[in-house]
Amino acid sequence: MEEIINKKYNSVGGWLILLCITLILLSPIANIYSIYTLFNETSTYFEQIKGLKTYVYIESISLIPLIVLSIWSSISLLLIKPYAVKITKIFFIIFLFRGIVQNLFPEIAGLDTFLKKEMAYGMSVNTASAILSFGIWFTYLSLSKRVKNTYSNSKQIEKLSIKQKYNNLKCKLQRVINHLRIIYLNKILIIIKKIQNIKLNSNEIIIISIIVATLISIIIGYYFGETYYFNWEGNRCQSSRSYNFSYKEFHFNYLLAIASFIIFGGVLYLFLNRKCKKINNN
User: How far apart are CA 132 and CA 279, in angstroms?
Assistant: First the structure.
């Protein structure tokens, strides 16, 4: 009976899949977006508010190790590396430490008392979240039967051939895809296959690439755009929460829009061009 249970829980699945998704996608994306938003909303006031620039740099730099460790630990878990659980535990220890120490960042940066009070609530929420996440996942890594059975024979797994490791990773990724699959995924795949079989000439490929890249760049430019608020004297307000602004201006993010147009347009052009060449050759 015990052998049957051990075989059932000797792979990356269940809550372990959720942990891997969180570490490789959700956590890095959230931290990168947090860094971008922090710079975007505060860079204008660096010269006006003492210590703000220092605080933003400290806050951003402290997130970089978490991003790297998060991705590394998730890949290690998916590949069933012998050190995977240890690396993941180290990540959560650093995550907890950073969640507690970040309360000292405003003091280190030399921000004034008013800003410290304004930031106190948000920091307390971040600290509570770090403690809760650490408690849940560290306990899971320490007590889970699946984690124990999956990584107990790590030395044998390490001796597997490259082909076997590739097949194992392929199976794990397939399980992740199955968990994330939504109702209309099959329909979308059918549409994509039909599109791939369409024969296009060079001019049509260029036009399609430009249209798609333009739409994507416009969406990104608007999404990451910024709204400026101004009071009756024409001076810029910190935000709309002050309730004393007389008008506002929306600034389209041209830098990200242009970069997105070049990247997505170029990638789509190369992809369509390559697909059409294969179809024509066949």
Answer: 53
Predicted TM-score (pTM) of the model is 0.51
Residue-range definition of the domain harbouring residue 263: 191-281
**What span, in angstroms and rounded, lies between the C-alpha atoms of 223 and 217?**
10
Number of CB atoms found within 10 A of residue 55's CB: 21
Q: Is residue 16 located within the same domain as residue 114?
A: yes
**In angstroms, how far is CA 9 from the centroid of its own chain?**
28
Cβ atoms 80, 154 nearer than 8 A? yes
In a domain, 20, yes or no: yes
| Among the listed residues 102, 100, 94, 123, the one whose alpha carbon sits nearest the alpha carbon of residue 27 | 94
Burial class, 85, CB count within 10 angstroms (exposed 0-12 / middle 13-18 / buried 19+): buried
| Mean pLDDT for the stretch of residues 29-56 | 84
pLDDT digits (tens, 9 = 90+) for 96-131: 999 898 888 888 888 878 878 888 888 888 889 889
